[in-house]
Amino acid sequence: MKTSRTLVVVAVTALATLAACGDSTLEVEQTDVEEQISSGVAEKAGTTPEVSCPGDLTGEVGEEMRCSATVGSDAYGVSVKVTDVDGKDVDFSWLVDEEPGDAPS
Questions:
Q1: How far apart are CA 85 and CA 90, in angstroms?
Q2: 25 backbone φψ class: left, alpha, beta (φ>0; ψ -120 to 50)
Q3: How many angstroms separate the Cα of 34 from the Cα of each of 1, 22, 47, 55, 83?
Q4: Which residues pair with 94 in a beta bridge?
Q5: Which of 35-60 are b and which e, b meaning 16 or more Cβ less than 10 Å from the residue's Cβ?
Q6: Cβ atoms of 28 and 59 closer than 8 Å
Q7: Are 4 and 76 in contact (CB under 8 A)?
Q8: pLDDT over 70 (residue 62)
Q9: Measured between alpha carbons, how far is 55 from 42 in angstroms, rounded to an integer?
């Protein structure tokens, strides 16, 4: 009998308080995005994935990027989107794909 580990679909809104970069553009550091996704999945699904994002998340409403969350040999895509910016506070949501296989490489 084959068993597999799967992630439940998780949608979460996260808040990051940031300092502006030298050019006044707010960014959520890549490691902060990855850590928030990893801890959120662990809390909701009971397993801690290895999360990888392509870079920092620009703090502009509507900004999107794709990350990946890996559990065992299964890689899931994760959609990340900035939902609100208030001063130095950046809210973003993320959603893990229902099925593995569409994760960015």
A1: 5
A2: beta
A3: 33, 23, 15, 10, 17
A4: 12, 80
A5: ebbbebbeeebeeebebbbeebbbbe
A6: yes
A7: no
A8: yes
A9: 22
